[in-house]
Amino acid sequence: DSFLKNIWAKKRNxxxxxxxxxxxxxxxxNKPEFRIRYLNGTSENNVSDDPEYVQKAIIKxxxxxxxxxxxxxxRTDTTSFYKNRLTEESNFINYNILFSFGEILNFTIGRxxxxxxxxxxxxxxxxxxxxxxxxxNINNYENHYLGLNTLSxxxxxxxxEFIFSYNASWITFKDYExxxxxxEREELSKEDFGGPVxxxxxxxxxxxx
Length: 209
Prior knowledge:
- It contains two helices and ten strands; from the N terminus they run H-E-E-E-E-E-E-E-E-E-H-E.
- The chain has helices spanning 2-30, 185-189; strands at residues 34-45, 53-66, 69-82, 85-101, 105-124, 130-135, 137-143, 150-157, 160-174, 197-208.
- A hairpin with a 5-residue loop joins strand 5 (105-124) and strand 6.
- The longest helix is centred in the first third of the chain and has 29 residues, at 2-30.
- The model has no long low-confidence stretch (mean pLDDT 86).
């Protein structure tokens, strides 16, 4: 009897061990590998000492993540107003490298590695004339907070992600020119025009599979 009990006990232990291994493999197989996300958001900020200067921004973001690393593309369009009069328009696109941590509750950070941009401004020359100037030459692009420009937190239910993200960036331009050729490049090159400063919260949905 004791011999048969030992055999049954060993058989039972083997079955339990196989069941645990099966559950472990199933869990590994069910881990999400791809995350595709779309987010957007807006902001309206006073970015100068003058309370009548207001900057508005619209941000759209597409992220594709494989396991723990991915690529994100952010497009930001800004308009600036002084006393309700349009003074500046810009758009810039950031290409970000993303690092993702977690499964159901996920945290993602991102840093820009390539940027394109253009800006149009109203500018008053020394002789008092107001002209339109433009530039598509980036002087400096800065990420905020430890070199990061994207911080995201998401929660997954079944295969759908609900995402909350904070985006921040600051961009300046150089080599302005007048499209109408009615101002001197030398005069513009001596000016420091600053640039858009954007901080915004984005919300979005994603698919996990």
